[in-house]
Amino acid sequence: MESQSAQNGYGSDFASLDLNLDCDDAVPCIFCDEIFNVMEDEQPILHHLSTKHKFVIGNVEQVADLRQYILYWGKLRCLDLRDYCVIFNTNSEPGAKEMSETFYLLCNKLPEDNRLRMTLRQIKLKYLVEQKEKERNDRNFSRKCIYCSQIIVGGMTNCFHHLTFQHGFSLGNPDNIVFGAKLLDILQEKLLRIQCLFCEKTFKTHQLLRTHMRKQQHRSLNPKNKIYDKFYLLNYLRVKTRLLQHMKLHHMFDFQDIMKKFSFYEQVKIVNFIRSCMAECRCLKCQLVFASPELLQDHLSQSKHCVLPDQRVWNLSRYHIPVVENDGLLCQLEDGELNDAEATSYSLSENDVTAKSECYVCGKKFIRTYSLEEHRVIANHINLADAHLYEDNRWLQPVLEEDGLLQSLREAGDSDDEDPRHPDSSCHGVVFSERIIVPPSILSDETLRLELLENMDQHFSLSSTAFN
């Protein structure tokens, strides 16, 4: 049935694929009957192919589903590799001491292989999107926390938030995580083995493990362990390179080269500025507005206006707000992956709205308030900052106009009375120049309104008597 589906959807060339992406069954080697579970670890089969069969899969990291890929190319067992592979010899240079060996390289230079990779990518992305939607909408999901005995209900996202805010362990943005239940199972198993999730060192007791992870701040996953890659959606999105090549080739806009000059926050503004211009059919440089996207593209091409204008045009706070929801390009800024909790030393302008997302303990800045709060919990930056961070005279300037809290501050010995030895009971709780907003409901109630007016008359009468 699955093979028939493959033929109907993708042609008879892919009839050998089962297209059951939920399946993680082991598969045989392309050239022999040895079995490998490529879904758990792809390295054994790659090593086997290279050492025993002198066969190499080029750019294997770009293969969306290696299991389906191996199943498809199983037909090579009965075919001549010279018709499908690039042949190269090792140690072929004059004077080489090692024996020369012939290897076969299968890569996307072969049209059939390229088509297979593109098809698998489309199928995989569709499957991942559907899987993520199921997980996001499953409000009945619940499981025991991997750290404590509490049962977390209300969906998988709540499990990740619980880990972050109750235990200071961050797995990243929950919206970027797929197959979350399986990820939590792996982490649970590691903790049962008394293994640190970051450095993966094993301890004798759970108490030693907890102490180690707390003191060493090992409150995240090991970034070098590739087993976690499949649980993060960004690792499946390989559109960035093609997108950047398209901009450079068709629009003469070298995105990577241009972005080298700017900080992360400026890069965000640039992307959103360009997105905004394209959505409004507005020229980047001269800011002229056109009636259609086609007319805009003609203008950009003929006038060579596909360039950044003066910073005063795009370096505005409003361009910190994404124009495209879940913009993949924004998510891949800075070495291909944006970590919201990663801080930057970039100094923001006084009028920049994101300046508020700053940790008052260490001074690091964040693009989102959620990321700031996550950082404060993980780094334990929830106490009053060191004095040197707030002794600067610039903090004498109010952030909020007519801040009532500032106006109610007092030093020891302060008094609103002319003679502190004889306090004026009519002046208790005075807040200087604080703006008072009276709810309309009070004024519409005749009884309350009369009582309010009577209280005000008594107050002014007492104040006048004290003054005289």
UniProtKB/TrEMBL annotation:
Organism: Cherax quadricarinatus
Domain of life assignment: Eukaryota
GO MF term set: zinc ion binding
Domain C2H2-type: 194-223, 357-386
Matches recorded under Gene3D superfamilies: Classic Zinc Finger
Keywords: Metal-binding, Zinc, Zinc-finger
InterPro entries: ZN622/Rei1/Reh1_Znf-C2H2, ZNF277, Znf_C2H2_sf, Znf_C2H2_type
UniProt family annotation: Belongs to the ZNF277 family.
Record's protein name: C2H2-type domain-containing protein
UniProt keyword annotation of Mitochondrion present: no
